[in-house]
Amino acid sequence: MPIRVLVVDDHALFREMILNALEEEEGLKVVGEAADGPSAVEACQRLLPDVCLLDIEMPGMNGVEVTRHLVRTCPRTKIVVLTAYDEDHWIYELVQAGATGYLLKEAPLADVSRAIRVAWSGESLIEPRVAHKILRMLAGLNPETAGGSGPPPSPERSRLVELTEREVEVLTQVGRGLNNKELAEGLFIGETTVKTHVANIMGKLGLRDRVEMVLFAVKAGLV
């Protein structure tokens, strides 16, 4: 069954280019499009796509606001941001809101389709330049990298007791950016076992996706 995609961008020519490119991709099916924030929310609630490819600056409601709405009303839909902006405040707010991928519009079309597939598989694909900014921001959340003795253990650190030793190990490696295949090879276990551990960790800690796992791992001081 193809991955169903909703494309949201207020620039008609760019939106048409993306639509045409995705239609040529095997295993992907564009089920709708929208040109502004409110239309994006309505279309997503009506069509229930697997992945929403989302711009940031749009009339009516920006990408952060749309992401927050969709996380609440369409929790099954994965959100991949495709934008011209890489400012720190946009990146931070979108990751916090629940976006599972972040690409710049200068990225090759092959990367866009790959980001959609990766997001639907439960993982994240983030533009390298953006990933560097995220790591820099996250470093400031970790007392060990921020310098000094730091504050008392965080709530996230305290919750690690809910996990098994192996789950803490998996969470640490996810926090370092490893995908399932790399985790399996590094821990000498099967990918199916890795997926089970990841699902158990998210269930126990109430996390939605791997981006939230990374944030949790950093706040817990694991990376």
Structural account:
Helix content is 54%, strand content 13%. The chain has 223 residues and is of the alpha/beta class. The chain has two domains: 3-135, Response regulator (Rossmann fold), CATH 3.40.50.2300; 143-219, Orthogonal Bundle (Arc Repressor Mutant, subunit A), CATH 1.10.10. Strands 2-1-3-4-5-6 form a six-stranded parallel sheet, with helices on both faces. β5 (101-104), α5 (109-120) and β6 (125-126) form a beta-alpha-beta unit. α2 runs parallel beside α3 (63-73). The protein is globular.
List the helices and strands and how they pair.
Blueprint lengths: L2 E6 L3 H12 L4 E7 L2 H11 L3 E4 L8 H11 L4 E6 L4 H10 L3 E4 L4 H12 L4 E2 L1 H12 L3 H4 L8 H4 L6 H11 L4 H8 L3 H15 L4 H10 L4
Parallel strand pairs: 1-2, 1-3, 3-4, 4-5, 5-6
Helix pairs in contact: 2-3, 3-4, 9-11, 9-12, 10-11
Residue windows where pLDDT falls under 50 for at least 5 positions: none
Measured by DSSP, the beta-strand proportion falls in: 5-15%
Mean pLDDT: 86
Structural class: alpha/beta
Overall morphology: globular
The CATH architecture of the largest domain: 3-Layer(aba) Sandwich
